[in-house]
């Protein structure tokens, strides 16, 4: 079921087209990745979703009806350009931002206490923002963006600026939000976190959506039809068995002493046939299909869209 | 609307709690009062120890005058700080010894032959330290008065003649309005009211308008804006800031008024006490000359006679209902108009140093207002004063300069209506610039760019 949809969004600034007929369909309870090189139009799209700016044409839908002013309270937004009032105290500031989101004072305080506990920030309440490190301040912002328990969470580069420990902590929180049934739009350059978290993606390049779909489908689509085997045995026997039907693209010795080989399937598709063939020749330790990383997909797709 | 209240509250409380605000609020009037009171106070402190001055007279042939024949007795007034002691039959060289070896602060040596020698007379003072200016002035003025009176006697001028020499001129202005009723008015009080209130509006607009601008720039460079504008509309945020800071200004202003009144009345009481004291001391030489059948009026410097009842009448003649009402209206209206422009400037730039190029259109009308105000105070019915008190960008300041002089009501209505309309338009206009500007980073903005923003949806 499509929870959130942007249909045929076009946005023009005086000199350039920021978004050209871009559509996205975000299923309920999914993590949706919004990818693209710098300046592709991601932030413009997110601002339109947040009603910060209006599109020149196209429309945004929530639950299959056009989004209206009140829907904004169902969104939690962590912008890429984010900051806090430096001179204000952490607690005061979080409370202020929560109340602007419509939470009552009592609710805001009790929820903040829970979050502060969870993210190990208990003694921060009376600290001024200027006393915190950048990462610490980002944690506060992260909390504020989801304090009002929004159904749709939009995170723009949420993990940049965090150390691996805290980035991991926040990724766990994002997954927990998903488990609670909330929908998340994640805009990022960090392809590792896309592989880790996202169910669906849209890749925007030069104002256009060039790739959209399930992460697994996209990776499958971009796979180069190669397998890697790790084995013990004679490389000569292996290449002899492959000759004619398959292509031995690379072979060598791994650090642990095992041999490996990368085998191109040519026009054959079934991995099982290859496996049957090899079992009789060498001792196989592992056998896996090589899927492209999201990084490779990203680069390939951007390159394709240019050509 | 509900969220606007949180924004106003934040803008207000964070500023009011700042140390700078508290210090300025308390110190403002204190500093101002200190500037007026301190010199008087310091002068008083300095003179607290008693100085004794020996007076020695030497007659026409160079011989010391014995005590019984001394002529300057009673000429000098003794005070808490200064005591004159007449030493009869003392020679010049004895005087030197007295100053050097005894507790006398100084010795004043007056030679009788020079006293009536012409219009320039000199006397000699021997002292261990440099004579203080106050003591010197006191000696000089006492002797001048004494010689003046001696000369009058020499010219056979009587007390009656002297009395008739002094004339005081009062200028009574009678204003005749169209209904034929006559009213008397003191122009100076009206000018004073106009000047003071016009200037206050000017300072308020500049000081707190600039704070709005700085606040917007701060939010922009903090990168907090994008977080906030998903919760509230940019327009709400802008209005919250303008209203919140305006309230800070009003708070500070109110505290200043209360503190100033407090200090003013305190200072007045202080000054009156001092004046009374000096009046009493001035009476002494008077008695002296009366005993010598000389008129007293001239001896003391003429004390400004203030006709208190006329002053109060002039004050009451000003329609304070109109003046205070207009002041509050133009005070707030002018601030709102300019604060919207300041907010737009803040939104258009990345840092405070970039604000210069946009400041000109805002500061020029303000400075023109002040210049026209100076003119309007002396010529409140002139064409210049009229037009600039109608134009909304200058009316808050210029109209205040005219307000003491009974402005025709249709002019007031026109001026206020225009100010309200312009304020609403300017807020809308600023809101458009603000909305786009706050999301623009890193680009150098020009006027062309800003005009383009108006067309964005």
Write the layout of secondary structure elements.
The complex is a heterodimer of chains A (307) and B (457).
Chain A: E1 2-12, E2 17-27, E3 31-35, H1 42-49, E4 57-62, E5 65-66, E6 75-78, H2 90-100, H3 105-118, H4 134-146, E7 152-156, H5 164-179, E8 183-187, H6 191-197, E9 200-205, E10 208-214, H7 215-221, E11 226-232, H8 235-242, E12 247-253, E13 259-264, H9 271-279, E14 283-290, H10 294-306
Parallel strand pairs in A: 3-8, 3-9, 6-7, 7-8
Antiparallel strand pairs in A: 1-2, 1-4, 4-5, 9-10, 11-13, 11-14, 12-13
Chain B: H1 2-16, H2 19-46, E1 51-58, E2 82-86, H3 92-101, E3 106-111, H4 112-115, E4 124-127, H5 133-154, H6 159-165, E5 174-176, E6 182-184, H7 187-222, H8 225-228, H9 234-291, H10 308-317, H11 320-348, H12 356-378, H13 383-388, H14 395-402, H15 409-437, H16 447-453
Helix pairs in contact in B: 1-9, 2-9, 7-9, 7-11, 7-12, 7-14, 9-11, 9-15, 11-14, 11-15, 12-14
């Amino acid at each position: 079921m499509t929870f959130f949809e942007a249909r045929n969004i076009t946005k023009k600034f005086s000199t350039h087209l920021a978004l050209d007929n871009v559509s996205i369909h975000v299923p309920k309870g999914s993590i949706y990745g919004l990818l693209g090189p710098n300046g592709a139009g991601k932030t413009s799209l997110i601002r339109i979703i947040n009603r910060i700016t209006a599109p020149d044409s196209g429309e945004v839908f929530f639950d299959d009806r056009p989004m209206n002013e009140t829907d904004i309270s169902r969104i939690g937004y962590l912008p890429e350009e984010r900051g806090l009032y430096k001179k204000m105290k952490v607690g005061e500031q979080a409370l202020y931002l929560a109340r602007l989101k419509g939470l009552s004072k009592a609710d805001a305080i009790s929820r903040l206490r829970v979050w502060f506990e969870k993210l190990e920030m208990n003694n921060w309440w009376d600290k001024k923002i200027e006393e915190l490190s950048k990462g610490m301040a980002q944690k506060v912002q992260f909390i504020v963006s989801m304090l009002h328990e929004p159904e749709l969470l939009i995170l723009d580069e949420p993990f940049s600026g965090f150390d691996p420990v805290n980035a991991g902590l926040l990724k766990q929180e994002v997954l927990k939000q998903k488990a609670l049934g909330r929908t998340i739009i994640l805009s990022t350059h960090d392809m590792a976190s896309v592989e880790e978290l996202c169910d669906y993606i849209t890749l925007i390049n030069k104002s256009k959506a060039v790739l959209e779909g399930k992460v697994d489908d996209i990776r499958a689509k971009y796979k180069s039809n190669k397998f890697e085997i790790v084995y013990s045995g004679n490389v000569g026997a292996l290449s002899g068995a492959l000759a004619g039907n398959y292509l031995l693209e690379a072979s060598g010795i791994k650090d642990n002493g095992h041999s490996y080989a990368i085998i191109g399937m040519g026009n054959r598709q079934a991995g099982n046939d290859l496996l049957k063939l090899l079992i009789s020749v060498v001792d196989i330790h592992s056998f896996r299909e090589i899927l492209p990383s999201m990084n490779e997909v990203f680069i390939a797709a951007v390159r394709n869209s240019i050509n | 609307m509900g969220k606007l209240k949180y924004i106003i509250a934040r803008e207000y409380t964070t500023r009011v709690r700042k140390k700078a605000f508290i210090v300025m609020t308390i110190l403002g009037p204190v500093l101002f009062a200190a500037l007026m009171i301190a010199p008087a106070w310091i002068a008083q402190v300095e003179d607290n120890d008693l100085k004794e001055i020996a007076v020695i007279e030497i007659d026409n042939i160079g011989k010391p005058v014995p005590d019984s024949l001394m002529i300057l007795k009673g000429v000098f007034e003794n005070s808490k700080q200064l005591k004159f002691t007449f030493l009869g039959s003392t020679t010049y060289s004895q005087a030197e010894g007295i100053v050097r070896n005894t507790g006398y602060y100084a010795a004043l040596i007056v030679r009788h032959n020079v006293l009536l020698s012409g219009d320039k007379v000199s006397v000699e003072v021997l002292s261990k330290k440099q004579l203080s200016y106050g003591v010197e002035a006191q000696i000089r003025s006492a002797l001048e008065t004494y010689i003046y009176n001696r000369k009058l006697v020499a010219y056979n001028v009587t007390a009656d003649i002297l009395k008739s020499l002094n004339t005081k001129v009062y200028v009574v202005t009678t204003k005749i309005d169209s209904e034929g009723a006559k009213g008397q008015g003191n122009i100076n009080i009206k000018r004073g009211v106009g000047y003071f209130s016009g200037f206050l509006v000017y300072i308020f607009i500049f000081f707190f308008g600039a704070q709005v601008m700085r606040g917007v720039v701060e939010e922009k460079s903090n990168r907090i804006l994008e977080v906030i504008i998903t919760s509230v509309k940019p327009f709400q945020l802008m209005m919250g800031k303008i209203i919140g800071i305006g309230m800070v200004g009003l708070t500070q202003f109110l505290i200043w008024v209360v503190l100033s009144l407090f200090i003013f009345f305190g200072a007045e009481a202080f000054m009156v006490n001092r004046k009374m004291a000096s009046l009493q001391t001035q009476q002494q030489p008077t008695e002296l000359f009366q005993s010598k059948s000389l008129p007293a009026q001239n001896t003391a410097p003429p004390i400004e006679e203030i006709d208190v009842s006329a002053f109060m009448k002039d004050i009451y003649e000003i329609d304070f209902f109109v003046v205070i009402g207009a002041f509050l209206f133009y005070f707030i209206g002018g601030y709102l108009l300019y604060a919207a422009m300041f907010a737009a400037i803040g939104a258009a730039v990345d840092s405070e140093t970039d604000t210069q190029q946009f400041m000109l259109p805002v500061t020029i009308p303000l400075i023109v207002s002040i210049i026209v105000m100076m003119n309007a105070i002396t010529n409140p019915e002139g064409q210049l004063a009229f037009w600039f008190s109608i134009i909304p960008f200058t009316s808050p300041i210029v109209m205040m300069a005219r307000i003491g002089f009974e402005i025709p009501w249709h002019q007031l209505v026109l001026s206020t209506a225009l100010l309200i309309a312009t304020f609403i338009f300017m807020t809308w206009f600023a809101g458009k610039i603000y909305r786009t500007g706050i999301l623009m980073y890193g680009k150098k903005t020009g006027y062309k760019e800003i005009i383009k923003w108006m067309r964005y949806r």
